[in-house]
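Quick one from the shared queue. A colleague (R.T.) flagged RNA 2',3'-cyclic phosphodiesterase as missing a structural entry in our internal table.

Convert sequence to structure tokens.
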Amino acid sequence: MRLFVAIALPQEVKDIIATLRGGIPDARWIAAENFHITLAFIGDVQPPDMLDISSALGKLAHPAFHLDIEDAGVFGSNKRPRILWAGVRNLETLTLLHQKIVTAIESIGIKIEDRRFRPHITLARVHKSPYEKVRNYLTDHALFKTKPVAVNSFSLFSSHLASSGAIYNEEVIFDLDPVDAAVSAQTSLGS
């Protein structure tokens, strides 16, 4: 069973992000229902390990927060882009949540892929797309931005490869700690 931990996005946010799909020849666009923000890629595990992972993640404490989805960019070099993405902002909070997730999973003896954490939403794979078209796309979407997105939970997903592409199933949802309105107001006043 192939697993990863991610933030599932609300449908209205997926619909807004879906407006970014198109305009680059030969791009393999991701289906809107698969948009998410990966927090940790676990990889292949045995079914009993999923229960241990769920138990470890269920003990994690982290406050709910907001993030911004803005901009578009690529992974890969400027001349050879590979992945087209929508950017995610609120890196300090996301990085802390990522670190807590990795620590929780590794504490039960399961190793997480050692990748630099770069939060994003994958829009397309663009291996063979003309560079000029990708560059124009990035320029055209440089000001893309959604309203702040409330993050009240994260999820453990399974991924199954099919001829039509990857199929993601949300296996377990983990609620984040609600933000105390009084503490939030005091923090805002104190800044």
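The chain has a mean pLDDT of 90.
The chain is about 30% helix and 35% strand.
Added to the table.
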